[in-house]
Amino acid sequence: MADDVIKVVDAKGLSCPMPVLLARRAVDEVEAGNVIRIEATDAGSKSDIPSWTKDMGYEMLDSEIDGPVYTFTIRKT
Amino acid sequence: MPDPDSPDKMTIIAFSGDLDKLWPTMILSSTGAAYGMDVTVFFTFWGLFPLVDEDVRFTGDNAMTKMLAGMNPPGFSRAKLSKLNMGGAGKWMMRKLANQHKVAPPEELFAICQEMGVKLWPCQMTMDLLGIRPDQLRPGLGEPAGAATALSSMSRSKIQLFI
């Protein structure tokens, strides 16, 4: 059940740098191995969230674009 | 594992008290903290006035420093634009636009920086020069520091910025 998303970050409507800041806050609140989802509409998050995920050493499980909403599913390691 | 090439320490010298320069300072420092970086912001010269508690009407210990304080009202909310301030109209428009685009204002990012453990150091020399007492600064700051402390932090940082 490790792949269950246990926290969803709603950063829709918020501009840079809030999606990354809220993502950080969320990973601080979960355990290593947990999966979180980040939803954002800021076009900058398309590159910001993946680069942050990579630099933090977390695992990007899925990223998708649904209309204006970018959704990232990330496992904290 | 975190990317070994990702920077682990950033030091920003916040020299300007202008709204349009405080903003990127706060964006980068909060984002650095979100990256897990050890972030230090050293507030010096005009950059010190935003740290003065907004309830403090006047800082300064003589006519000149009081006059400077009068031209640099305390707090983030009163910071002016570096250009096109137009007596505050430009600043108002910038904040209104930011609000419409849900861009967090610098005071909110500052609070996030504090929450995330960003080190916020006032410059001791500027405090002496401008007659700003420690009790006139907002709470939650680091100990006032000097140029050597700032340089020491910069020399250990992969990212050093002067804004």
Structure description:
With 77 residues, chain A is of the alpha+beta class. Helices cover 30% and strands 36% of the residues of chain A. Chain A has two helices and four strands, in the order E-H-E-H-E-E. In chain A, strand 3 and strand 4 form a beta hairpin. The longest helix of chain A has 12 residues. Chain A is globular. The model of chain A has no long low-confidence stretch (mean pLDDT 94). Chain B has six helices and four strands, in the order E-H-E-H-H-H-E-H-H-E. Chain B has one domain: Hypothetical Protein Ychn, Chain: A (3-Layer(aba) Sandwich), CATH 3.40.1260. Chain B is α/β, with parallel strands linked by helices. In chain B, helix 1 packs parallel to helix 4. A four-stranded parallel sheet of chain B has the order 3-2-1-4, with helices on both faces. At the A-B interface, helix 1 and helix 2 of A face helix 1 of B.
List keywords for this structure.
heterodimer, A: 4 strands, globular, B: alpha/beta, four-stranded parallel sheet, 39% helix, 12% strand
Rg of chain A, Å, rounded: 11 Å
Quick one: CATH superfamily of chain B? DsrEFH-like
CATH overall fold name of chain B: Hypothetical Protein Ychn, Chain: A
Beta-strand residue fraction of chain A: 35-45%
CATH architecture of chain A: 2-Layer Sandwich
Q: What Rg of chain B, in angstroms, do the CA atoms define?
A: 16 Å
Into which percent range does the helicity of residues of chain B fall?
Answer: 25-40%
Give the total of domains of chain B.
1
CATH homologous superfamily designation of chain A? TusA-like domain
Number of domains of chain A: 1
